[in-house]
Amino acid sequence: MAARSTGEVLFACSSGSADPVQRAALGALVNAVRRDAPSVDVRDTPVEMLTPDDLELPVRVAVPLTLTEGTDVSAALAVARRSDPSLQVAASLGPDWSLAEICVQRLIEAGARKEDTIVLGVAGGQHESSIDGYTRAARLVSAVWGGPVHIGAIGGRETPLTDAVDFARTHGGRVVVASYLLTPGRFADMLRHCGADLVTAPLLDGGPPDPRIAALVVARFHQALGVGAPSL
Predict the structure, then answer these.
(1) Cα separation of 63 and 12, whole Å?
(2) Domain hosting residue 217, numbered range
């Protein structure tokens, strides 16, 4: 997708607390976005590093590299926008049909079967917006998978992941956790050790980023500038 004009800046915003494995995966995604939007100045920006100089650029859109609203990145971007209302803040990447399709692709690649009980493994959140986002993501994955999908969270207010896995065991058969995490790292490691029979790879699995994720970043950028309708 080509940018509409020169002088546009896309801040690909993530948490400054990301570990080296997460940073590498996010960096690979940002490079893929640069290839998709060669006329846009795409910057890999830990959200804590948005500076006053950045806020003086002409056309600026901050795209949170998050799977739901209500995260620390969202809160930091809200503060930045209050400092300069001309900064455009895009919607989070998820929930979205393309992410649900990738989740189901990961399930199939991992060997999940229709008789398995599927748990969507999420980071978890405290805010209603994040909880709502995870609920909608589970519904999308369920629609693509063609069967029920439960939610289990590493933290936050949703059902704890280990409890969700234990409850899924009561249905009999195997329990498969579909990772709804963007990057590898500590949380992905926690999913792998939750007691499920299978756990899928995160959306960015350490290899070349799925083109659908890079396209989604670019789509969120254009939607923030009023071009194109949101996909959800």
Answers:
(1) 5
(2) 8-94+207-224
Locus of tokens 């990738």: 102
Domain count for the chain = 2
pLDDT of residue 231: 44
Chain position carrying tokens 């963007």: 182
- Structure tokens that stand for 201 in this block: 């790879």
Sheet with 198-199, side-by-side order of all strands: 149-153, 117-122, 175-179, 198-199
* Pair of tokens at residue 193: 């050790």
Rounded CA-CA distance 105/130 in Å is 24
Same domain, 105 and 185: yes
Per-residue model confidence (pLDDT) at position 14: 96
Residue 3 resides in a domain: no
- Distance CA(73)–CA(14), nearest Å, equals 6
Q: Note whether 135 and 129 are within 8 A (CB).
A: no
| Residues 105, 184 within the same domain | yes
Residues facing residue 42 across a β-bridge:
10
pLDDT of residue 54: 58
How far is residue 48's CA from residue 219's CA, in Å, rounded to a whole number?
A: 23
Closest CA to 106 of 200, 199, 190, 182: 200
143: tokens are 């629609």
Q: Quick one: pLDDT at residue 57? A: 66
Residue 24 lies in a domain: yes
pLDDT at 17: 87
Spans of the chain below 50 pLDDT: 1-5, 229-232
